[in-house]
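During the second half of the funding period, the structural biology subgroup turned its attention to how the target accommodates small molecules. The most pressing case was HMH, which had performed well in the primary screen but for which no bound structure existed. We therefore specified the complex as follows and requested a full 3D prediction, including the ligand pose.
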Amino acid sequence: MTPPVVVTIAGTDSSGGAGIAADLVTFAALGVHGACVVAAVTAQDTTGVRAIHPVPYDVVVAQLDAVLDDLDPVAVKTGMLATPEVVRLVAERCADRLLVVDPVLVATSGAVLATDDVREAYRADLLPVATVATPNEAEAAALGLIAGPGVVVTRGGPVPTTNDHGTGCTYSSALAAHLALGADVATAAERAAAYVSHQLTLGKHWTLGRGRGPVAHVHAPTQGENP
Ligand SMILES: Nc1ncnc2c1ncn2[C@@H]1O[C@H](COP(=O)(O)OP(=O)(O)OP(=O)(O)O)[C@@H](O)[C@H]1O
Ligand SMILES: Cc1ncc(CO)c(N)n1
């Protein structure tokens, strides 16, 4: 059966834990086809962010046009958008689709991933047209968002692990995938939380990198490993 298409508009993370890598593997794990629009390139490892390069606006527009014209995604998920122009672009082009906005402002490591003008564009333009927003507690406070039908405020969970780099990206991508597969927001949010929790359990003993290792986005248990 042809899978539904979900597009992520986000940044890359060279460590493979967060951003577009997390989004695409999560889409694949949950049975939707993932398309991607790269809005920024970051140099990151498991300990922090070393460099950020926003992709030129016209290149972001060209990627988004290509996906919207040809693949007709049922759902759109946004991560790191990097500039206020791109935040407004997504608001203009994607308001008529299922739209999951993960308002990425600050990485778990504390690195600032969005400036004040980006935050203002989220508030004024993108959040009002989102199907659901998935801020963490710091982002909700910065954006004046309160939990409700269209806002899921994310916070850690019961799995004891330090391999949690990319949990927010993985969670919001799982939510978008389940919306694309037909679930309502509340059900999709529950399924996304269960998915992240399961994957965090699988990767909790991994030793990748010197800092906070990645979520095991897609991996199934190997023989003898209990989730
Ligand atoms: N330790 C955990 N155990 C179980 N579930 C978790 C855990 N940590 C996160 N989750 C799930 O993932 C969701 C997103 O996590 P969180 O709010 O920590 O992301 P975040 O701070 O945006 O992450 P990041 O910025 O690293 O991508 C939580 O709401 C929860 O459902
Ligand atoms: C590219 C990218 N997007 C989002 C986050 C948030 O975790 C991150 N660290 N890096």
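Two results from this model are relevant to the next phase. DSSP finds seven helices and six strands in the chain. The longest strand covers residues 33-45.
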